[in-house]
Design brief:
The chain is of the alpha+beta class. The protein is built from five helices and 16 strands. The protein is globular, with a radius of gyration of 18 Å.
Length: 309
């Protein structure tokens, strides 16, 4: 099994971020926790009803952070899957809610609707034929027949695609499936959610600078620790990358490395999943902390903004 596990971006105001993704876009808040490396700040996970791999967009919430600047070595746009027949619904919804949105266009023969969140994070809806037959989460506002089904994929902007493409195909389970102008498309076999990575090659592109509205990293799936270890071995032996040691993120176990174009890649295990510390029917309701931070709960909670969920 291969594909994107999750994508993590940077945002500013936690309440504004929560409102946009749960109300305007209709995703489920599946985990309200803190940045394990910076526990004075929130880390939100949004996705489907169960927080399935391939549906998750997460945010580091850093109030007061400066906006990022777009450039090379970054994930430029994150795409979600919706039913083909729902594209007009979303265009109307964005207009009614005054959400920053561009004109509908076509990419690889599919209708796409580019839009942005309040922090400037570049997003896109992709109309997929037959997507309506898949499961969906509804917040009671977005009708279930129009709801987002999960991630479609991500677009990377790189000075050169060749070495990154080699890692996607040799290590991460993707294959090149087509080209559309400057875009090269890679797809994961047998998957629906999180199945696409597009590379836009821009020779001589200036490197971007991360900040509010930027993607921090993109994570790919490993079904188990053993599969992840094999991927690490191949990265070291055949692609001269230097992954980190495995880090326990409570809901998955991860390693990180910079791919040749500069994007921070993560490989995350599918298990144990988001129901490891709270029941599925109450995901995202309470602040969850990893065991090593529980003794600091009172201190951490007093420093975090109070939210209505």
């Amino acid at each position: 099994m291969s594909g994107i596990h999750h994508i993590t971006a940077i945002a500013g105001d936690p309440a504004r971020n929560l409102d946009f993704y749960t109300r305007d876009v209709g995703l489920r808040l599946v985990k309200k926790t803190v940045n394990f490396d910076d526990p004075s700040t929130y880390h939100f996970y949004y996705g489907d009803a169960a927080g399935s791999p391939g549906t998750i967009l997460t945010f580091f919430l850093w109030p007061g952070s400066a906006p990022g600047s777009r450039g090379g070595g970054e994930v430029h746009r994150t795409a979600f899957r919706v039913p083909m027949r729902s594209m007009d619904y979303w265009a109307r919804r964005f207009a009614e809610r005054e959400i920053s949105c561009q004109a509908m266009e076509t990419r690889f023969g599919e209708p796409v609707l580019p839009f942005s969140d309040p922090d400037g994070t570049a997003l896109m809806l992709v109309g997929i034929a037959g997507a309506e037959s898949g499961p969906a989460w509804s917040n009671g506002d977005v009708p279930v027949e129009h709801a987002i089904r999960g991630l479609h994929g991500a677009t990377l902007v790189l000075d050169s695609a060749e070495r990154t493409a080699a890692i996607l195909t040799d290590v991460l389970g993707f294959r090149e499936v087509g080209r559309d102008g400057a875009l090269i498309r890679f797809a994961a076999s047998g998957e629906t959610n999180g199945c696409v990575v597009d590379i836009e090659e821009r020779k001589g592109v200036t490197r971007g600078h991360q900040g509010r509205g930027s993607v921090h990293h993109i994570a790919f799936r490993a079904t188990s620790d053993a599969e992840q270890a094999k991927m690490v071995e191949k990265l070291i032996a055949e692609h001269k990358r230097h992954p980190t040691e495995q880090k326990d993120r409570n809901y998955f176990r991860s390693i990180y490395f910079r791919e040749p174009g500069g994007v921070l890649f993560e490989i995350a295990t599918d298990k144990p999943g988001f129901a490891v510390d709270e029941a599925t029917d109450v995901l995202g309701r309470d602040l969850r902390l990893p065991g090593f931070l529980e003794s600091r709960r009172a201190e951490i909670e007093s420093a975090l903004p109070v939210l209505k969920t």
